[in-house]
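Batch job 17 of 40 flagged for manual review because the log was empty.
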Amino acid sequence: MKDKASTALWRLMGFRRRMPRGDVSPGRRASDREPVRGWRPALAVALAIALLDWGTKAAVAASVELEGFREVIAGRVAFWHVRNEAMILGLYGDLSLGTRKAIAIVAAGVAVLVILQIIGRGHRLPGAQRTYASVFVGVVLGGMLGNLGERVIHWGVTDFLSFYWAPYWLPPGNVADIALFLSIPMAVPVIVFEMMGRARRASFAPSSAPLPQR
């Protein structure tokens, strides 16, 4: 058990097997001996998004009173300062605070597992696809950090960015919300890249068919 935990920790830190395994085809796992560097661009993107989110929230909180509404681009964009104690877009607002916290913890746990899987497998992708996967992880992680970082302090999230969709102003959001929404369509190419990678590795696998008899 201790060896398995140690191996899992080293793999999360980016280290891979240095010796080939005889029971696994080289085409599938040869890149496992490469270091994982996907955390570097992912963390850079995540930190940039989180800092932008926290900075804009602080600026709006200091300049627009709570429940205040101020049009920035007439008829298009407005700062609508609200405190959202529900989930994103007000979801599950009718549930108790304890239940909402439990949902947030489960959702964050699932997201972390997905992120670890993408980073752990991303080193097998070609260069451009690997970079895209790292940026995708950074966008998701940045959106999570933006909102969860504020929820840790006082649970509620500062929403302020509202767009006009005739004849209504849409419920306000924030930079972290935008990042999380953008990550949804961004996930499609990542899935396609993984499927392409599986097909490519399978093509290198040695055939298990019996040799023809003479």
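Reviewer: the log was empty due to a logging misconfiguration, but the result itself is present. The longest helix spans residues 175-204. Unflagging and moving on to job 18.
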